[in-house]
Fold:
Amino acid sequence: MKKYNYILLSALLLIGFNSVAVNLPKTIDNYIGNNNILSVQLYKSEWKLSNPIIELNSNQKLLFQFDELTNTAQEYYYTIVHCDRNWEKSTLSQFEYLPNLTEFPVNDYEFSVNTKMDYVNYYLELPNENIQFKISGNYALVVFDYQNPDVPVIIKRFYVLDNKVNIDALIRNSSFESREDQEIDIKVFTQNLHIQNTMNDVKLVITQNNRTDNAITNLQPRFVGSNYLDYDYNSENCFKGENEFRYFDLRNVNYSGEGVAAINYRAPYYHAILEAHKIRKQRQYSFYKEMNGNFYIDAANLRNPDFEADYQMVHFTLELDRVLMGGGIYVFGAFTNWQCTSFNKMKYNLEKERYELTIPIKQGYYNFIYAWKENDESKIKPSNLEGSHSETENEYQVYFYYGKRGDRYDQLVGFSKFNSQTKRTFGN
Structure:
């Protein structure tokens, strides 16, 4: 029956030059549509903390994984969508960037083993025997339920690179803005491209720690050389340095790791009570090494944590003697998809004078910060609670796109990442 359903679904989706049937927003961003879907990851297969980017016509692979808190496997399918430089769906037919049928079942999954909380771990490798990439650019992996194929369950951005430029950067204290900011000066060496119009043919995008909400996307070259473009600004290329991420270690359910005050078992689940936290807005900067907001699934003495690691109910506490009006406080990091939703929004406890949140989190090592988001704004502001320092260690990702007038899609022709400590000058 399942095979028949797949053949029927594929035939239906082929109608209209195989256009994507899933309803997608105009600007496609990372998305999780179900609070029971957790631990969503997309990374280069050899390293779980890598950026989701592979080179065109290479042997590199991406590995996609997610869990669903259930004891029943669902009929999930996936499709691939090519996007332009602005993350809007490109005008190309899927046949122009993929060689085969473009909707396939997520067939690889494992049921959790010996865990207190049941879940199904799904995984997918890209490229695979069904999916090969013909062109470079921005892509979105879209997962949907066979029973409701027009609604996305997961959207995850990734990149295919056709490297044609070299990118260099220098990170410094902001020249004119707050001393809490970091200025990212970029130079792109373009000798392998014939750029006719720098205003329209190219686009530079800078992200901080792979966040999408505060990306810089509107810079034009400040100086155009014979074979390079210079993006050396004083304020337009600045990010708040923010603060070092908080962290906690859940790798062992038998004792408390770093950042964990206590672990206890209250049937039917383990509970991890994190150390109580305070706002760091006015505190002096202190350096410590962390993972720039990322997370890593791992469990002590287990052979395969992907489906053997357990979920714990994790208790977050932010001490505050008053309710903050006009917005919400969120637990913010890669494991919450770098977004502010009902899943990771904290609630105020009047009796104990603190914000609280309890959510299920898989065994592993995690980074996070507390973020403020006003009700009527889309901007996420961790610095309102955590403070911001120009000394903070951050990783910056730089993407460079090329598509001249008349081209039907945008190529991704450059990518580099830079650490604010190693590519740093402390002068102005």
Observations:
- The longest strand covers residues 148-161.
- Residues 1-18 have pLDDT under 50 and may be disordered.
- The two ends are 67 Å apart (CA to CA).
